[in-house]
Amino acid sequence: MAGSPTACRSPLSAYFRPVSFPASDSVSTALEAVLARCVRMIRSVGARHGLSEADLDDVVQDVRIRLWRSCTTSEQIERLGTSYVYRAATTAALDLLRQRRARGAAVTESVDDHSDRIAASGGASDEADARDLEAQVLSAIEALPLARRTVVRMYLSGYEREEIADLLGWTEAKTRNLLYRGLDDLRARLNKTGITWPRT
Amino acid sequence: MASHLTDEQLREAYLRAVAARRDPRRTACPTPDALLAAVRREGSEDRRLLVFDHAMGCADCRGDLELLRAIEASRRADVARSVESRQWRAPLYILLAASVVFLAALALWKRPQHAAPDDVFRGNGPAVVAIAPSADTTVAGGPLTFSWHAFPGARRYAVEILTAQGGVAAVRETTDTSATLGDLRFDPGDYTWWVRARLDGAEVRSSARRLRIGR
Fold first, then answer.
1. pTM for the structure as a whole
2. What ipTM does this complex have?
3. Which fold, A124-191?
4. In what order do the strands lie in the sheet with B144-148?
5. Cβ B64–A108 below 8 Å, yes or no?
6. Which of A29, A100, B21, B164 has most Cβ atoms within 10 angstroms of its Cβ?
């Protein structure tokens, strides 16, 4: 990783730098280049799990302004390296989430909102059964021990075993073991309520 | 009541249940800092499990978590790539210095003789033979697979992708004769690639091939 943020202005002096876009062409080009590398990576990592594009856009815009305020030349931006950009992105993301909660809006677009697709697959007459099923599934999951429950929730949310292991800092073997036991446990609990699985 | 349920139906029922029970006030939700700590594996395992357990059962927190996770995972991948690149470059300097000394000594020793055909010299002797992608190929920006012929005595190979400016865009080491860079995405543009074979006390590489990555 080349360079460090010390090449740029101190945060305090940067804070007072007025923002007056558009920046010069060379600064803009350097800024967009360093941002693009990081954003492409973040988007590719988050795409599978419904990362909100709107949230990412907000974060990127915040980072863009922070970079532009703290660096006056394209050379400074190029020296920053991506590690600084990731740190700035993390700070911007935390600020975004805190502000959202402070507003009490809770308007995050759900990554799990499959209701349209699900509704299309069943008729209105099935709605009550569907609600019962949902309640049973949640109830059965909540009865699982914590480690199994967490892994099962991650799996049902669409995370691959490798991703679960990475998030939890576990070995693949431990993750697999807990996931299979958790799913077996879940099926057994649901079986008791009359829900069965097709044989594979 | 459904009496038969596939895994996919179970997943859909779960996601629908999670989406249906959102709390706009989010009073039970962990703070953004707690989510970040969990993503960074900071704090006790029990604490992190509780945070993940909540986040996976709360559509709002899962959206928050995913934003932080994507940034953190990208940062870690970037650091790993940087370390990998540095790890390769450091011994490379030593190897280069050693190979210069070795070649000088070999040249003195062999001055009156002809070099054996299987001696390894960078540039003049046998080289690693790259197979694919062929020279001056344009490929899509998806996962890139590079392959080459085995080189006698090679212990490891490193495929290097260089930018048009000569900077290292990616390095992947392997003991195999192919490497797929499925986890990396490259900007569209012109690149050069080659393969270095690391032998005992020496290294030899293929000729450089130009590669154009399209959109």
1. 0.60
2. 0.77
3. Arc Repressor Mutant, subunit A (1.10.10)
4. B130-132, B144-148, B178-181
5. yes
6. A100
